[in-house]
Amino acid sequence: MSIPRYTDLDTVHDHVWDALETAAEDPGHPYRQLTFGTVHEETPDLRTVVLRTADAGARALQFHSDRRSRKVAALRENDRIAWHAWDTESLEQIRLYGTATVHVDDDVAAALWESQSPGSLSVYPRPTAPGTPIDEPDDKLDPAVKSDPITDDDVAGGRQYFVAIRTVIDRVEWLHLHPDGHYRARFEYASDEGEATWVVP
Ligand SMILES: Cc1cc2nc3c(=O)[nH]c(=O)nc-3n(C[C@H](O)[C@H](O)[C@H](O)COP(=O)(O)O)c2cc1C
């Protein structure tokens, strides 16, 4: 399969956001599982999360998490975030930068909770907080979520620990390791019209 070569900045920009919107709907997409970066006590931290919604118009990406987790503590201290993905087939790297808001009991959290299948919420009914030291390897999940089918009732107790994390992107860095050469572009949204430029890779 030949790899398309992009020579127009608007096309690159649309392509990146189309891919993110597709990934939020398609569990098999390379951008479905993204690396999410935060800063905690002046130290960078990374972890993989599942992209749950992407909205090109609002430049927003969302995932869900446990409100007791370290990343939530980090975001309460510093709302600057970064996302990263490397697509080994299309040979593109994306890096996105922005800010995050943590949604506990508002409409954003309710909408994300309600849109998810019980299976994807099965990690939340966990009485012991993530990151707690334990004597033996154990997932500490509620037994009800360990046998199929997982129902809404099985996961309802996890709502108290669920958060939606909504990020709004203010800069996109795109790098393409195309067989013809390496190409890089940057998009910034600080001004209303935004700024787009090719960059030396
Ligand atoms: C493939 C994959 C998908 C994951 N998806 C999520 C997710 O959507 N939300 C989440 O909070 N953690 C997810 N995790 C777990 C995180 O990577 C991380 O281990 C956990 O959230 C604790 O991170 P923290 O200590 O930085 O808060 C996922 C891990 C993997 C490997």
UniProtKB/TrEMBL annotation:
Q: Name one Pfam family in it.
A: Pyridox_oxase_2
Q: Does the keyword Flavoprotein apply?
A: yes
Q: List the PANTHER family hit by this protein, alphabetically.
A: PYRIDOXINE-5-PHOSPHATE OXIDASE (PTHR10851), PYRIDOXINE_PYRIDOXAMINE 5'-PHOSPHATE OXIDASE 2 (PTHR10851:SF3)
Necessary cofactors: FMN
Cited Gene3D superfamilies = Electron Transport, Fmn-binding Protein, Chain A
Spell out the protein name for this chain. Answer: Pyridoxamine 5'-phosphate oxidase family
Biological process terms in GO annotation: pyridoxine biosynthetic process
What keyword terms does UniProt attach to this protein?
A: Flavoprotein, FMN, Oxidoreductase
| InterPro entries associated with the record | Pyridox_Oxase, Pyridox_Oxase_Alr4036_FMN-bd, Split_barrel_FMN-bd
**Molecular functions (GO terms):** FMN binding; pyridoxamine phosphate oxidase activity
Determine if Flavoprotein is one of this entry's keywords.
yes
| SUPFAM superfamilies per the UniProt record, alphabetical | FMN-binding split barrel (SSF50475)
Q: Where is this region: Disordered?
A: 119-151
Domain Pyridoxamine 5'-phosphate oxidase Alr4036 family FMN-binding: where? 17-103
